[in-house]
Amino acid sequence: MAVARELFKELPAEVCEEWRTKARDAASHNKVEYLNLLKAPPSKDPIDRQECINNLPAFVAPLLKGIHERTGLHVFMFMGGVMPKQKGELGTFLSWGKNFEPNPVTWPQWDEDRFKENVQDFYIEYLRTAYSDEDRERAKLLESSGHTVGLSDSGLYTFDDELKGVNQDLNKVSDSSSEDSESEAEQPQRKRKCRVVADDSGKRVTKGGKKSPDHNDVKDNQEPPTPLPKKSTYEIQREANIVAIANDPRIKEINAELAQMHAEHHPPCAKPKPHVKYLGCVAPVRKSERLAPTAVEGDDVVITGGTTGDNEETNATSNGDTSCTSRVRYGPRDNDRWCCTFA
What we know:
By secondary structure, the protein is an alpha+beta fold. The protein contains eleven helices and eight strands.
């Protein structure tokens, strides 16, 4: 956006004002259309109604699940009427909550024959008295208009072919990711095929046959991975729109022009020169008489020092010289003199 804003400022004033007018008009039109949809009564068009029916389980599931978790009650929602896609009465029921049998099921699945006879059939008889023939004819407009292909019935499946009922287990609507992970865990592990190969020594050995690693295998001290949340219809449509816009040839052409203009206005900077690393100076080795070695007892030591008097040099030898009473060490100079003890 920053690049587009800078390029927009460089356009002529007439072009900028034209684009501002178009943007204001588009925003005003979208706002008026949104407000009209909020104020207008619900649409009675069969296409719009069928779309609402298809999205009903995903909308109702969080509500029924919340009621069940906060009250502890089993929730059952029963609806029926003229379905545009089925051209007649359809009993649609949504339930939440299962029993404690070894294989937990919902109320409609607990005794399907009994539920069909005592609940669904009885409700269908009532629905036949609630809709006229004209209502059924208006519902058939969906088929004659040829828009049935664009409608999705995901999440709905037939409960009974004869009665054309629709049953939806809401556990599969809100917790689809967890259901998928459970179904994958129940599937048997795939075996890898064995193959015969030659090793370094030329012998034929068999490789493979072991179980392939599975992402569902979790150690005892590790928690299972958290399932990904299910995407809503809005999120799926939004991602599809983003992909469609990105793949639009016109958008690609505009992006290429913007990149070229940006490269012309902002050329790449030259790389800075590397700094010379300072290694310091190497000082000469200092030679000092203070680090002279020490005489060892029993060795012939010759002591030569500075002046002992006025420009007089003294040489003392301990090898065969009885005048030296002790053998001394080279030591620090004291006023440019060497210290030694003589008899």
